[in-house]
Amino acid sequence: MASTSIPLLNLSAKTAIRAALFPHSSTIKSRHHFSLPFLPSKSAKSAKSTPIRMSYNPTPATDRLISAVSYTLPFFNSLQYGRFLFAQYPALGFAFEPLLPILGLYRSIPHSSFVAFFALYLGVVRNPSFSHYVRFNSMQAVTLDVLLVVPLLIQRILSPGRGGIGFKIMVWSHNGLFVFSVLCFLYSMVSCLLGRTPHLPIVADAAGRQI
């Protein structure tokens, strides 16, 4: 009995000494045991390997062309507001000389402004066969054209004359409207040719509610 108890005492003594010297050895092993990296499942691997495809639908060329041409309606009707700038800066008129043949053809048609307005509104805006892109741009052009008529109506009602502060206000408003209409025309043309949707200030919200 004495011979068999000595190894057990030695084994228990070694275990006690090891536990005293390395008190965290068991926890370290357990930590290493539970800190194994998580092995992803087959579904996770398949989800990572599945490529993500992004759909891109470019605007058709015909839609871009029709949308760009629709903005010529308010642009042609706004050229009358530039007569004071053309008189003050004759060199500015040279930039618009290439448009004179087209403008002359447009003005040669009786009531061309009304014909183009109703053709664009009834033939394009209210035509469901056209895409939303074309209809929105056409409605935006129609709305801008209507807003450009308002200053002429105010001018005819007030009749500022040929001098005084009223005439100066009229000249400033005409110059501002002309610059604004030209910038809107260039911005809208470039955006439509690139397939993007132009959003004109004030006009875009009013046009969006009508579509």
UniProtKB/TrEMBL annotation:
Report the InterPro entries cross-referenced here.
Answer: Tic20
GO CC, any one term? chloroplast inner membrane
Coiled-coil stretches are: none
Query: Major place of localization?
Result: plastid
A Pfam family found in this protein is TIC20
Subcellular localization(s) per the UniProt record: Plastid, Chloroplast inner membrane; Plastid, Chloroplast membrane
TM segment ranges: 105-124, 136-154, 174-194
What are the alphabetically sorted keywords of the record? Chloroplast, Membrane, Plastid, Plastid inner membrane, Transmembrane, Transmembrane helix
- Name the membrane topology term: Multi-pass membrane protein
- Described function: Involved in protein precursor import into chloroplasts.
User: Hey, which family's this protein in?
Assistant: Belongs to the Tic20 family.
PANTHER family per the UniProt record, alphabetical: PROTEIN TIC 20-II, CHLOROPLASTIC
In its UniProt entry, what is this protein called? Protein TIC 20
Q: Which organism is it from?
A: Cucumis melo var. makuwa (Oriental melon)
